[in-house]
Amino acid sequence: MALDIDTLMARVTSHAQTLGVFRKVNGHEPKSAPGNGVTAAVWVQAVDPIESSGLDSTTVRVELMVRLYTPMIQEAPDAIDPSVLKALDRLCAAYTGAFTLGGMVRQVDVRGAYGDPMRARAAYLNQDGRMFRVLDLTLPLIVNDLWTEGA
């Protein structure tokens, strides 16, 4: 079996797109500053085998990064964190509700059974001379029996 990263990324980004809270959703880390509004970007952060593998196969934890961006220069600065946090809340609810991404993964590892849990960290990012408030969401996905082990 091979990791179908194209379909996996499409399912993760489509969850974000269907929420209607993001100006744009990218399937990559942007090389230039996003525009106004809240933007989401998704990329692969890590791939690790995990202990729950079968006798002749390896189960893998695919960690995606989902970064939410919003510009720091806005008319209502008190609304910056609430707007990006509301988008994050909707996104986490969508990923938790689609626990297997339509049967593609064993689970979204919400509570961290196989490593770090799904979690978000806030930060500031200077990109192309523009300051952004960002929330980086770690999205751990457990993919069963991905690689066959042989002698």
Give a verbal description of the structure.
- The chain has 151 residues and is α+β, with helices and mostly antiparallel strands.
- Strand 5 and strand 6 (130-148) form a beta hairpin.
- It is elongated and about 60 Å long.
- The protein has one domain (5-148): STM4215-like.
- The two termini are 17 Å apart.
- The protein has helices at residues 5-18, 80-97, and strands at 24-26, 39-49, 57-71, 107-108, 119-127, 130-148.
- It contains 2 helices and 6 strands, in the order H-E-E-E-H-E-E-E.
- Strands 1, 2, 3, 4, 5 and 6 form a 6-stranded mixed sheet that branches.
What secondary-structure arrangement, pairings included, does this model have?
Layout: H1 5-18, E1 24-26, E2 39-49, E3 57-71, H2 80-97, E4 107-108, E5 119-127, E6 130-148
Parallel strand pairs: 1-2
Antiparallel strand pairs: 2-3, 3-6, 4-6, 5-6
Low-confidence stretches: none
What is the H/E string?
Answer: HEEEHEEE
Number of domains: 1
Which assembly state applies to the chains in this document? single chain
Q: How many helix segments? A: 2
Q: Specify the structural class.
A: alpha+beta
Query: What is the helix fraction of residues, given as a range?
Result: 10-25%
Cα-based radius of gyration, to the nearest Å: 17 Å
Give the tags.
single chain, 151 residues, alpha+beta, STM4215-like, 39% strand
Quick summary:
The protein has two helices and six strands.
